[in-house]
Amino acid sequence: MTTPAQPPVSDNPKDIKNDPVIARLLERMPQKVADSFDEKQLSYLRNAIGAREWGRHKVDLRGTIKFFKWRYYYVILAGRNRRTLSPEELRLAALLNATIFALFLTVSVLFGLIVLYLIKSALGINIFEDWSLGLWTWFKANVLN
User: Fold this and answer.
1) Is the separation of the CB atoms in 45 and 84 below 8 Å?
2) Cα separation, 45 vs 26, whole angstroms
3) 44 contacts: CB under 8 Å, gap ≥ 6
4) Could you read off the pLDDT of 122-142 as tens digits, one per residue?
5) Low-confidence winner among 70-74, 76-80, 88-92 (lowest mean pLDDT)
6) Is the pLDDT of residue 50 over 50?
7) 118 contacts 133 by C-beta, under 8 angstroms
8) I want to staple 16 with a disulfide (CB 3.0 to 4.6 A). Which of 26, 42, 81, 106 is the partner?
9) CB 101 within 8 A of CB 87
10) Are residues 9 and 40 in contact, defined by beta-carbon separation less than 8 angstroms?
11) In terms of pTM, does the model score above 0.90?
12) Is the pLDDT at 97 greater than 50, yes or no?
């Protein structure tokens, strides 16, 4: 069983009470109860309540689609991830990052090899006599002319 991550604790105890979410929460309860929370408890409350906020995203697309007599809604949200990731999510993120990096590296190397091949061909250097990929001929005919 995993233990929950510690919430960030500020150096100034007044900071968490100035948070808009916590301020709204505390003003809805009696003052005596609101004063009974310490900074650590308020930080955990902020994390629990903050997970329900959907308002701050760089991309926030919402709409509905009517299909015969039914209506379906869609929501597309994208932005900086502020959640604490589970070990499975961390592994998936690492795998996705490695895949994207490998794909970028592969495309970059292929592009570099093509550029080098075109430079070699433009300089008239033949590594194998009477053999060509035909890339230089195509490049001259379609790009340079």
Assistant:
1) no
2) 11
3) 7
4) 998 888 888 888 898 899 899
5) 76-80
6) yes
7) no
8) 42
9) no
10) yes
11) no
12) yes
- CB of 62 within 8 A of CB of 75? yes
Q: What is the largest CA-CA distance in the chain?
A: 91
Q: Give CA 33 to chain center in angstroms.
A: 39
List the beta bridge partners of residue 64. Answer: 73
Is the pLDDT at 14 greater than 70? The verdict is no
Three-state SS for the chain is CCCCCCCCCCCCHHHHHHCHHHHHHHHCCCHHHHHCCCHHHHHHHHHHHHCCCCCCCCEEEEEEEEECCEEEEEEEEECCCCCCCCHHHHHHHHHHHHHHHHHHHHHHHHHHHHHHHHHHHHCCCCCCCCCCCCHHHHHHHHHHC
- The angle subtended at Cα 31 by Cα 12 and Cα 20, nearest 5°, is 50
Given a contact cutoff of 8 angstroms between Cβ atoms, the answer to whether 115 and 143 are in contact is no
Reply yes or no on whether the pLDDT at 7 is more than 90. no
